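TICKET: design request
STATUS: open
ATTACHED STRUCTURE:
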């Protein structure tokens, strides 16, 4: 009954007894059967149905072995008429005829010849009886499901009663794990995913991919199974698993290897996870819930329900007037692989999110999309390949590409397909061919691929990507460095290309060789562990840990001051309750801003990096605007609602890379650029709320100068910082002997010492700074506690955070040969490729940091993500580490004493050792150590550390000087934007190190600047001028020796309010921001005053001409601050950049000819700027005019900009009236500017008047006759005033 199915928006049901399909919706009171369009269908009478009962019973006992249907048969899911029906020869309501279930006309019963089919009244009676029968069966199944589900809970709920009748009616059969007739891909009205009574005999799925589908048949139930079903025995889960396995055999034959891991059979990792959490290893399916049309499911907030006592509460929302953004309202997605028995932590998450962590990777979910398995297989093949993509071409091909990409993302949001499809689209359409270089050929290839995509040739496009990946065509190039600091040509080219792509910091680290060894292949051997890198990466991602009750946690025995919600460890009590949150809003303009904030390389699918995304959003006019608008809607959908996980599963995947730490391996996850854009948008929208949530406790939420304040606060507490260490310890110190005895015996406790020895010891006075190291930082964080704390402390991001971590994250580790990539499940912790990871980690540990601060108030305990410290008495620092070791694992923070350090003097080291050893904490004791990019400790160690840093920077400047000979613009950008900021940060955080930067200053003056400007040497006066800012005729390359103390003083002043709050406890965000702005403004004014004084003195010494030249240089230096970008067209050639830089400092351009090629005169700079024969004046003028016209086209449109428009004379109405009366002459071109000035000054309207002409005695005056060809450069319509054209 296709018409009925489309009108109701549901999939067809199956008759449980006969195994036949019924294309009828359940008939309930208030719902009426829709008979629209029924004349086009063939339905026989009830008599013919009864006569074919025997044939139906015989067909329902077919073998459960899947049979492959031939193309063109009745089971083929294509809307074409069937020539014959082999299952029956008469039309009947019993769905032995597959044509009837698919909505096609069976030739055995034609409405023009069948006498019985003409009676409309009889057909309606038959349909009404069938609907009533279906309604009765539905009510019976719901009652069985209710009894069975309540019995499977195993215990009476402690915080609630049985499911109310309003909820029990919404529970369907727990055995219902299959789908009805799925909608064809690309259909404009996707059908809702509804549970069916039989998962085996689903109708075949319609697909545009032409893959052959396997249709399994239903096995006949035994008597024992029917008895178990009637009794509601929970042991039938094994038969459900069998039927789910039979249903999962309906998988694509194309790409079977890639899709085989997504079957219904429980994976080994899932079994281990459930076993570790007490769930058992037997695969189990959860009772399926319908989503009624009256409203989604919610969870009552009148007391937390017990584990497993959560039901369908559609009517609960209406009765209590709960809004869609309130706690507990959103629907839990049906997940057959979700553990059946819920923990108490799961129930608490359900009360605030309406859902919980599903403890699986979500690859078995399809979100109601028919051919999701096909696209998962194609996506896996693409992410296993190292791709290199073309930039989107200009013109109509590029606009068509961006428009199609916007439609692909719109299809995800409209539930036509899932996110794998648009990601595969970018990979296969823009896949680079190395043998094609010309722009026209690239456009031709991309256009042909777009045509193939529209024709549905998806497998062919994916196969091309895989072939190129396995053949090694997409691989990178091996770059080698030369000796004595000179870089090879390939390194210089690669550096220049990376800078033009916006990867300035990565380019500098690449060129200077500071990439920590680079990425490792999964089969390489770890230099520290001695095992393959893939095994190291797997060990870095632990299994999920579900929080336990307080009674089950040994660390919380006897602890009464720490209260947890519902006695679940890690779920802190928030007396104010669950806060309400406003939705996050995006639009096309915000997406335009975000495109400039996203940085980094591409995600798992490869290719679409930050630069490509910026190109998609900005370069293609209305097509880019449509893409930005669609992605804004998608971002709001993901940040405010609870979409099906399959819809964004591919976006949530990460590309895992192992970096060589030398020694060791560091895991790095790279997320999809699209998802990073959403995270950046949430940070831009809710960043201030995150800063308030973390306050002055966790300084990793983007707080201004937060990381610098931590270093300044530690120095204020520990007065011995920057000490000059003595040669030996204190004489006759009893703690020296005790510490030595404890180290020799290896017994780090005080039990072996007598009471007399302990009483004779003097009081401990040792002070220092303890730096604590946590094991596997972000990956060990407890995901349950993180989501709980984020919901209460950062409510505006609660939905995006939950959507990102409600399933395991899929981490892709590519192989170097293009084979199927390794998959690692990110079950616990946070992905470091997530832009929200830093803030989420800080908020997750806020309860731990706050309890530590209240418990041990005598020490300063600053936090920056997982980098924690303690400054104060050594014994109090030992208490802090012991506190973290006891309570940190509850939140996923595992401190390692062996990797922790205590910074102190030699005299106090013995006391510090006894303080830590007495608690069994074996830490390392040092005189100084690096902390948050700065340094804490003695003066000698500080000087050695800074000298080593300066040596590395000197080598980096030398390499950039080598690059500057060929690419001066990108070398200048790398030094001023990246490398210079590195040593300026050290200047802001470490005092008294100005003199140590002298080698760096010499390298800049003697090597880099001569290579940059093409001069043999730089004088002292010239160097001071270059150190000025761009507006003061300089280049902004600061003198590190002269600016070190100024930077430190500015940072100290900016952090004054934050440091005070860290020591006293009261923090005001507004006051801190005001202090930072004041410090920055004061330092800028002081610098400008000094630079202006130097420029004026220099101009006074060299004359007025030099003073005017310096003034012009300060006003015309904006091109120096412009970041070189291939996307925005701001790159300059070496000659352009160097010649302009030399002219800025009164130096002649290099290789300037001796004579002018236009007039033959002697060539000088002045002659080149004024010669009207050589054409340089026109070239310079046309360049400015063309650039202005291009900007106007971007601001308005191409149709509003005209090139070289004809200028007509104009006059005011007063002047025209006077001319007509003969008081004045006709307007001339000389008066045009005056008339325009009057308009601007007085606002008088202008009217078009006849152009200028020569009026002779015998000529007839024509007001429209042109006499001169006066033209402007550009004409822009509605530039200053709507409806007027303005000439420039």
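STATUS: resolved
RESOLUTION: sequence designed for all positions
ATTACHED SEQUENCE:
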């Amino acid at each position: 009954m296709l018409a009925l199915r489309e009108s109701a928006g549901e999939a067809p049901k199956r008759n449980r007894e006969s195994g036949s399909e019924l294309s009828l919706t359940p008939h309930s009171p208030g719902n009426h059967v829709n008979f629209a369009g029924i004349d086009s269908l063939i339905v026989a009478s009830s008599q013919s149905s009864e006569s074919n009962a025997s044939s139906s019973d015989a067909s329902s006992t077919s073998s459960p072995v899947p049979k492959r249907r031939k193309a063109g048969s009745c089971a083929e899911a294509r809307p074409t008429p069937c020539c014959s029906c082999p299952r029956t020869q008469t039309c009947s309501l019993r769905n032995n005829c597959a044509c009837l279930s698919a909505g096609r006309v069976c030739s055995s019963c034609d409405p023009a010849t069948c006498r019985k089919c003409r009676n409309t009244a009889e057909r309606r009676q038959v349909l009404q009886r069938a609907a009533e029968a279906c309604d009765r069966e539905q009510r019976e199944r719901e009652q069985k499901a209710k009894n069975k589900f309540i019995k499977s809970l195993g215990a009476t709920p402690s915080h609630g009663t049985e499911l109310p009748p309003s909820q029990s009616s919404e529970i369907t059969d727990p055995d219902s794990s299959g789908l009805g007739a799925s909608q064809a891909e690309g259909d404009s009205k996707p059908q809702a995913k509804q549970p069916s009574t039989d998962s085996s005999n689903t109708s075949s799925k319609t697909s545009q991919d032409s893959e052959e589908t396997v249709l399994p048949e239903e096995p006949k139930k035994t008597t024992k199974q029917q008895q178990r079903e009637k009794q509601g025995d929970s042991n039938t889960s094994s038969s459900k698993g069998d039927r789910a396995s039979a249903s999962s055999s309906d998988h694509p034959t194309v790409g079977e290897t890639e899709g085989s891991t997504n079957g219904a059979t429980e994976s080994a990792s899932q079994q281990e996870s459930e076993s570790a959490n007490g769930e058992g290893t037997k695969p189990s399916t959860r009772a399926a819930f319908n989503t009624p049309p009256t409203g989604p499911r919610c969870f009552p907030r009148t007391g937390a329900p017990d584990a497993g006592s959560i039901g369908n509460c559609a009517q609960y929302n209406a009765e209590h007037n709960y809004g869609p953004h309130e706690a507990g309202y959103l629907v839990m997605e049906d997940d057959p692989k979700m553990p059946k028995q819920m923990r108490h932590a799961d129930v608490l998450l359900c009360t605030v999110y309406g859902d919980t962590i599903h403890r699986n990777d979500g690859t078995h979910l399809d979100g109601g999309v028919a051919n999701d398995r096909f696209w998962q297989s194609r996506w896996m093949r693409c992410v296993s390949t190292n791709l290199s993509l073309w930039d989107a071409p200009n013109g109509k091909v590029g606009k068509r590409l961006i428009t199609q990409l916007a439609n692909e993302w719109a299809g995800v949001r409209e539930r036509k397909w899932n996110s794998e499809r648009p990601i595969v689209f970018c990979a296969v359409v823009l896949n680079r061919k190395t043998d094609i270089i010309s722009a026209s050929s690239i456009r031709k290839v991309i256009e042909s691929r777009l045509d193939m995509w529209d024709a549905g040739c998806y497998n062919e496009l994916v196969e091309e990507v895989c072939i190129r990946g396995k053949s090694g065509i997409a691989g990178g190039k091996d770059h080698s460095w030369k000796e004595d600091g000179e870089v090879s040509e390939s390194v210089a080219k690669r550096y220049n290309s990376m800078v033009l792509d916006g990867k300035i910091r990565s380019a500098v680290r690449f060129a200077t060789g500071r990439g920590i060894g680079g990425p490792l292949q999964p089969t390489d051997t770890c230099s520290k562990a001695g095992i393959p890198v893939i095994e190291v990466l797997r060990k870095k991602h632990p299994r999920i840990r579900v929080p336990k009750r307080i009674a089950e946690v040994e660390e919380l025995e006897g602890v009464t001051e720490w209260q947890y919600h519902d006695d679940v460890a890690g779920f802190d009590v928030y007396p104010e309750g669950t806060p309400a949150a406003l939705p996050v809003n995006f639009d096309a303009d915000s997406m335009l801003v975000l495109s400039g904030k996203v940085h980094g390389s591409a995600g798992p699918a490869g290719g679409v990096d930050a630069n490509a995304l910026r190109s998609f959003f900005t370069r293609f006019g209305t097509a880019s605007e449509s893409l930005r608008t669609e992605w804004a809607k998608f971002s709001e959908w993901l940040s405010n609602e609870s979409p099906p996980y399959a819809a964004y599963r591919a976006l949530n995947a990460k590309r895992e890379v192992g970096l060589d730490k030398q020694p060791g391996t560091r895991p790095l996850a790279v997320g999809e650029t699209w998802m990073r854009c959403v995270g950046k948008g949430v940070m831009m929208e809710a960043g201030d709320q995150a800063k308030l949530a973390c306050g002055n406790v966790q300084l990793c939420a983007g707080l201004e100068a937060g990381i610098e304040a931590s270093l300044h606060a530690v120095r204020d507490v520990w007065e011995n910082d920057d000490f000059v260490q003595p040669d030996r310890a204190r004489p006759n110190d009893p703690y020296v002997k005790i510490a030595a005895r404890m180290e020799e015996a290896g017994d780090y406790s005080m039990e072996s010492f007598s009471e007399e020895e302990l009483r004779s010891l003097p009081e401990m006075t040792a002070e220092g700074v303890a730096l604590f190291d946590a094991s596997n930082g972000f990956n060990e964080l407890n995901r349950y506690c993180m989501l709980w704390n984020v919901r209460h402390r950062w409510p505006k991001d609660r939905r995006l955070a939950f959507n990102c971590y409600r399933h395991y994250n899929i981490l892709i580790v590519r192989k170097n040969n293009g084979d199927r990539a390794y998959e690692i499940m990110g079950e616990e912790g946070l992905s470091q490729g997530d832009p929200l990871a830093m803030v989420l980690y800080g908020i997750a540990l806020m309860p731990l940091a706050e309890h530590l601060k209240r418990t041990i108030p005598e020490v300063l305990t600053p936090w920056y993500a997982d980098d924690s410290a303690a400054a104060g008495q050594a014994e109090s620092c030992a208490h802090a580490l012991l506190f973290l070791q006891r309570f940190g694992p509850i939140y996923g923070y595992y401190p390692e004493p062996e990797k922790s350090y205590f910074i102190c003097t030699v005299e106090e080291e013995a006391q510090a050792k006894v303080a830590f050893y007495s608690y069994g904490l074996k830490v390392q004791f040092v005189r100084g150590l690096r902390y948050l990019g700065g340094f804490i400790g003695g003066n000698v160690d500080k000087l050695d550390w800074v000298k080593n840093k300066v040596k590395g920077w000197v080598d980096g400047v030398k390499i950039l000087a080598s690059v500057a000979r060929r690419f001066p613009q990108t070398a200048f950008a790398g030094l001023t934007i990246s490398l210079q900021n590195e040593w300026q940060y050290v200047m802001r955080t470490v005092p008294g190190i100005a003199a140590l930067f002298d080698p760096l200053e010499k390298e800049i003056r003697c090597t880099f600047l001569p290579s940059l400007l093409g001069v043999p040497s730089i004088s002292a006066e010239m160097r001071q001028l270059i150190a000025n800012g761009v507006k003061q005729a300089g280049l902004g390359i600061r003198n590190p020796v002269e600016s070190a103390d100024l930077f430190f003083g500015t940072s100290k002043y900016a952090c004054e309010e934050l440091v005070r709050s860290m020591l006293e406890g009261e923090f005001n965000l507004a006051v801190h921001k005001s202090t930072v702005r004041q410090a920055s403004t004061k330092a800028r004014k002081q610098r400008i005053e000094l630079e202006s004084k130097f420029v004026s003195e220099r101009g006074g010494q060299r004359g007025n001409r030099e003073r005017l030249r310096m003034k012009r240089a300060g006003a015309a230096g904006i091109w120096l601050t412009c970041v070189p970008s291939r996307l925005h067209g701001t790159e300059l050639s070496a000659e352009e950049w160097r010649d302009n830089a030399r002219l800025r400092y009164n130096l002649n351009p290099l290789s300037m000819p001796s004579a002018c090629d236009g007039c033959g005169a002697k060539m000088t700079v002045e002659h080149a700027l004024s010669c009207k024969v050589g054409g340089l004046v026109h070239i310079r003028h046309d360049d400015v005019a063309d650039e202005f016209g291009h900007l106007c086209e971007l601001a308005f449109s191409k149709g509003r900009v005209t090139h070289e428009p004809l200028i007509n004379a104009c006059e005011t109405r007063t002047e025209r009236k006077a001319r007509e009366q003969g008081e004045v002459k006709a307007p001339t071109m000389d008066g045009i500017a005056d008339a325009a000035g009057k308009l601007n000054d007085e606002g008088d309207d202008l009217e078009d008047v006849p152009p200028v002409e020569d009026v002779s005695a015998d000529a007839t005056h024509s007001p429209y006759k042109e006499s001169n060809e006066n033209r402007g450069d550009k004409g822009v319509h509605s530039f200053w005033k709507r409806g007027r054209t303005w000439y420039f």
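CLOSING REMARK: The mean pLDDT is 75. The chain has 48 helices and 23 strands.
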